[in-house]
Design brief:
Radius of gyration: 23 Å
Number of strands: 4
Structural class: alpha+beta
Number of domains: 2
Shape: elongated
Strand content: 5-15%
Distance between the termini: 42 Å
Number of helices: 7
CATH class of the largest domain: Alpha Beta
Order of helices and strands: HEEEHEHHHHH
CATH topology of the largest domain: Trna Endonuclease, Chain: A, domain 1
């Protein structure tokens, strides 16, 4: 899809303003880019905005909704939205929402159980719907469960020897997996 002059001007106006506000702008540069992809991606520190620039009649952009549902910051901007565009560019990065501790603990144990029973599809299903902060928390929970399971059953404390054993086990797993990927 070739961009019309009005689209190019709108794109340049947003990119210029974003750069004034300290954002790095990654623009679609190919003249026939996919309309499903964001028009621009704006990055400033930890903040990443996925922006679809549109003109003309307002229409739903399902891709933007999918990005938002995945926990990403996504916007569809029309020229009439200019005041909103400016206010969005002035905002700091949103604080990540901490996942519920009980939910993370339950998911971590579900992942441990599915992994122990070699139910790979279940592990994938457990993770596929989670936002990335929750995925990281669950992974940390799983790692903590593994480390604690190696601890001395009598005291429940992690000694330096236990930590070395877990680290060695993890290194061996990484080496084994790297060998599988190379072969």
């Amino acid at each position: 899809m070739r961009l019309q002059p009005v689209h190019i001007e709108w794109n340049q106006k947003v990119v210029t303003e974003a750069r004034k506000r300290g954002f790095t702008a990654l623009e679609q540069t190919h003249p026939s880019h996919r309309t499903a992809d964001p028009s621009i991606i704006l990055i400033r520190g930890p903040r990443i905005l996925h922006v679809w620039l549109r003109s003309g009649r307002r229409k739903p952009v399902p891709q933007a909704d999918a990005y938002t549902e995945a926990g990403l910051e996504a916007h569809v901007w029309y020229p009439a939205d200019w005041p909103f565009v400016l206010s969005t560019l002035l905002l700091p990065a949103p604080e990540p929402v901490a996942p519920d501790a009980d939910e993370v603990s339950n998911l971590a144990w579900a992942v441990v159980a599915a992994t122990a029973e070699e139910r790979v599809q279940d592990v994938h299903a457990l993770f596929s719907e989670l936002a990335w902060p929750t995925q990281l928390a669950v992974l940390y929970g799983v790692a903590t469960a593994l480390v604690r399971s190696v601890a001395d059953a009598g005291t429940g404390e992690m000694t330096a020897e236990h930590r070395a054993m877990v680290a060695d086990m993890a290194r061996r797993q990484l080496i084994q997996r790297a060998g599988r990927d190379d072969g």
